[in-house]
Amino acid sequence: MEFGLFVEFPSREGTTQAQIFKDSMELIDAAEESGSEGVWLAEYHFDPGRSVLSAPVTVAGAVAARTKKVKIGLAVHVLPLRNPVQIAEEIATLDHLSDGRLDFGIGRAAFPRIYQGYGFNYAESRDRFEECLEIILKAWTTERFSFSGKFYEYDDLCVVPKPLQKPYPPIRIGATSADTFELVGRMGYPIFINPSRVSTLLDLKPLVAEFHAARKEAGHTGTVGVGLRVPVYVAETKEKAYSEPKESTMFQMQRLINVVTQSIGDAGITAGDDRAAQAERLKAMSYEDVLANTVVYGTPESVVDRLQQLQEELGLTQVIYEVNFGCSVPLEHQIKAVQLINEKVAPKLN
Q1: In terms of CB atoms within 10 Å, which end of the chain has fewer, N or C?
Q2: Which residues have CB under 8 Å from 234's CB, separation 6+?
Q3: Per-residue confidence at 350, pLDDT binned at 50, 70, 90?
Q4: Whole-prediction pTM value?
């Protein structure tokens, strides 16, 4: 099972934006030095209290320049917000600058307000996503191409550079809402799961089954990657592992409740994506519930056991671990957790 660090360049009260970038790069350095297989960069927009990482491709270029071994993943790049030809050019360039270490994680984003900020209709997000991806793949795999679609039209374009990895960097598609699991399965790509709106991680099991069923029905064969982004915090004792991230974790749970509640009734939210029910489930969760069902915190031994269970139940091939769930875990604690994960957890599961 592959392990990678999820980094979101989190905003913290009393910290300058410049310091956020420095601290996050220091955490990435620690991940590479301790043997992490990858680092995965988030993407956030118009949320100053959450993150400053609104330009992940630019940041990925900086990460490529300061690292030598780790894979660099986007988790995830929101395709419908940008021109697909520009994305194709930038991602191919980044693939060269990283010497082929890039993983292209892509998605639609879960909240309509991001689309409002860019002047797009969230109800069009799925159609825009599929059209953008089709254009990007044409740009990478054909010398010249033309395209006429619902949103974009191009005539006889030659996009350069082509990616270093052939035919293109590994693609993973993010899924948060239930209806997206079926979409990703139908498209046939590896899936990258954000479980932020389920009550327990094992609630994902029927959704993963839907993903595999849709993939099979669409005629895709062979094995496929299943990645899970999950809060993981490791300390030398159970008491430290539970107490050190507690305040940050519960702050994040409340923030998630607020964001989900604010999106209830927004245009483009499908009937299968019941935000009101999600908010109520989240409100009912105590820290003990979160520890038991939503995060993976503990000693190295207990974390290995829990991740093995998730690997078996969900068929995981990849864990993207988040050591700063809620954005306020001190940097030195984050670094120590990353070191313990790479020294005492990942080797037992690889």
Answers
A1: C
A2: 241, 297, 298, 299, 300, 303, 337, 340, 341, 344, 345
A3: confident
A4: 0.94
β-partners of residue 229 are 320
Location of structure tokens 């118009």: 46
Range 177-181, long-range pairs (CB < 8 A, 24+ positions): 177/110, 177/270, 177/272, 177/273, 178/207, 178/210, 178/272, 178/273, 179/270, 179/272, 179/273, 180/108, 181/207, 181/208, 181/210, 181/211, 181/214
* Tokens standing for residue 108: 């639609």
Exposed/middle/buried for residue 217 (C-beta within 10 Å: 0-12, 13-18, 19+): exposed
SS3 state of residue 178: helix
Per residue in 58-93, is it b (16+ CB within 10 Å) or e — as a string? ebbbebbeebeebbbbbbbbbbbbeebbebbbbbbb
Which residues neighbour 249 within 8 Å (Cβ) at sequence distance 6 or greater? Answer: 231, 287, 290, 295, 325, 326
Flag whether pLDDT at 54 surpasses 90.
yes
Place 197 in a pLDDT band, splitting at 50, 70 and 90.
confident
- CA nearest 297: which of 318, 321, 281? 321
How many residues in total does the chain contain? 350
What are the DSSP calls for 191-254, one per residue?
EEE--TTSSSGGGHHHHHHHHHHHHHHTT--S---EEEEEEEEE-SSHHHHHHTTHHHHHHHHH
Q: 267 or 100: whose pLDDT is higher?
A: 100
pLDDT value for 271: 54
pLDDT tens profile 204-255 = 999 999 999 999 999 999 999 999 999 999 999 999 999 999 999 999 999 9
Is residue 68 within 8 Å of residue 119, measured between CB atoms?
A: no
Q: Which residues contact 8 (CB under 8 A, 6 or more apart)?
A: 41, 42, 44, 50, 51, 53, 322, 324, 327
Nearest to 109 by CA among 184, 52, 185, 45: 45
Spell out the domains of the chain, with CATH numbers in brackets.
2-349 (3.20.20.30)
